[in-house]
Amino acid sequence: MLLHLDSSANRSDESVTRQLTRLFADGWQAVHGSDGYRYRDLAADPVQPIDTAYCQLGRRSERCGVLPPAQVCTLIENAAEAEAWAVTRPLIDEVVASRTILIGAPMYNYSVPASLKAWIDRVTFPGAFTLEATEVVVITSRGGAYGPGTPREGWDYELPYLRAYFADHGLPDSNLRIISAELSLASLVPHLADLRPLAERSLAAARAEVLSCVEPRENATAEH
Ligand SMILES: Cc1cc2nc3c(=O)[nH]c(=O)nc-3n(C[C@H](O)[C@H](O)[C@H](O)COP(=O)(O)O)c2cc1C
């Protein structure tokens, strides 16, 4: 299954991450069909921030040595916890069922959008999943540039955070693909006009990388 998450607050066609995740998702479906495709727009349909009930249920599970998701319902003590688990469990089930998780993650204030963070906090219930057999594709876009030698080298707290998060959840480094389109604000902001050719190259390279991920390979078996 492919779980496709978008988190750009900009739901228009201008969104670079949405354009690129759509390109990936369309290519994936051309190979695998649409049965195993699941889409979540975290901006249009936000995941509720976690609350006291979520935390107390999680702490109870930790006290028991961490129960598998199927047994967490046995720990529920009140209606608020039942509600918290009813919101959480389907999101965890989607992660567990996914062979590939595709995440559109624009840089917001040097980090991930709050809508994506809310999803991460919710699905990361104690003991909910490990990602040893999962592939994760993060597609990011940022107004500026953060690579070696740029004035803001070292200011990117988004990708190091996502790398650490996924590594901590068992994702092998080789199963994490990060595709980045930089300088997306160059086309808008007058004082960045000189950087427009670089921005265009970055976007073209990101598109090519997305296509290389999903192009049909000879002898590839259809797996979900
Ligand atoms: C709330 C907000 C915060 C942003 N913060 C940053 C930032 O810290 N660094 C940066 O380079 N660009 C920043 N940008 C620009 C976006 O990263 C850039 O426009 C990106 O292309 C947005 O993704 P999208 O095109 O998929 O909507 C920010 C944009 C918004 C709306």
Topology summary:
Blueprint: E1 2-6, H1 16-32, E2 37-41, H2 52-63, H3 69-72, H4 79-97, E3 100-104, H5 114-123, E4 135-141, H6 159-168, E5 176-181, H7 196-214
Parallel strand pairs: 1-2, 1-3, 3-4, 4-5
Helix pairs in contact: 1-7, 2-4
Bound molecules: flavin mononucleotide (FMN).
Structure characteristics:
224 residues, 12% strand, binds flavin mononucleotide, single chain, alpha/beta, Rossmann fold, five-stranded parallel β-sheet, 41% helix
By CATH, the superfamily comes out as Flavodoxin domain
Structural category is alpha/beta
The hetero compounds bound to this protein are: flavin mononucleotide
Number of domains: 1
Q: What is the CATH fold-level name?
A: Rossmann fold
Over the alpha carbons, how many angstroms does the gyration radius reach? 19 Å
- Total strands: the figure is 5
CATH class assignment: Alpha Beta
* Estimated share of beta-strand residues: 5-15%
Order of helices and strands: EHEHHHEHEHEH
Identify the strand order in the major beta sheet. Answer: 2-1-3-4-5
Helix share, percent: 40-55%
Distance between the termini: 4 Å
Poorly predicted parts: none
Question: Whole-number average pLDDT?
Answer: 96
Contiguous helical run count: 7
